[in-house]
Amino acid sequence: MKNLLTGLGQHVRSELMAYADRGLARQVHGDSPGGDAQFDVDEVAERAVVEYLRAHAEIPLAVYTEDGSLLELAPDPQYVLVVDPIDGTRPTSAGLEMGMVSIAAAPLEKDSPTLADVTAAYLLEIKSGAWIYGDDDEGLSSGGYAHPLPRLSRTTDPAKMFWSIEFNGHPMHLMNAAYAHLVDRSANTGGVFVFNSASFSISRVITGQLDSYVDIGNRILRDHPHTEAEFLKAGRGSILHLFPYDIAAAVYLAKLSGVTITDAYGEDLGTTELLDLDPMNQKSCIAAATPQLHKELLGAIRWDIPGATPTTAGDAA
């Protein structure tokens, strides 16, 4: 499985690097089944996934990708690969460092495999080529980093944390109401970043570059259902929270590394169905290098946010 996952990731990266060398302008060609905009680089990466697996898979496989949904490559597949060919399409399109190939593998022994069923995962940085791999048998391995991984920080104070947050498809004023005070508290004595890639953000906690990652949009929607119109407006008609393919590999590797990672309620993410894009199967996430920082974040974020009122949602619609 390691050879298959790493080979697939490297092939996708090589196709993307060759495409970037041609200097073509970025364009949006449509939407994924979940509603996220698909850029030209997404088409290149999606095609590379299927091409490689058709040529190199030695066991019966199915593959589930961001744009292609479920594809059985052989009768009675034994495993499903959940692949986000580019987690971080926008930074990848801009030639920045935050794009990653994300691959998770799970036995296909039931109709609805979950994140808890994942047995192997691989994250590959498209720009640098650095990678993190893990499986149930061999544990964690990595390459291209200056230090062995994991290398978790010991930060417990939110005022000193380096952290990333997410805004894609998230109404800005709702996020501002929930954690602007934490941004103000940490922006000078710590660091606040927006990377537009859950895989990159979570992997930065594993590398020790970040102390935490926060994406709370799905909890805000669940706690305040009348905000749905605002989330739909921000997502151009779709709910765009954390899809299973966004986090399947990163959550598995984070847990293997000792990162404290849950949804925004503090609940385990293992029940997430890997092949379901429904908004109620989409997720929130709080990841932290220490249990103490995770607890501090859960308690400090303002969940009963003043901006989430029926009147506000009606005005937005």
From TrEMBL:
**Keyword Glycoprotein attached:** no
Question: What keywords are assigned to this protein?
Answer: Magnesium, Metal-binding
Source species, domain of life: Bacteria
A GO molecular function term, named singly, is: metal ion binding
Q: Which Gene3D superfamilies match?
A: 3.40.190.80, Fructose-1,6-Bisphosphatase, subunit A, domain 1
- Report the Pfam families cross-referenced here: Inositol_P
Q: Where does Mg(2+) bind?
A: E66, D84, I86, D87, D246
Q: Which InterPro entries match?
A: Inositol_monophosphatase-like
Q: What residue ranges carry the coiled-coil annotation?
A: none
Which coenzyme or cofactor does it need? Mg(2+)
The identity of this protein, by name, is: Inorganic polyphosphate kinase
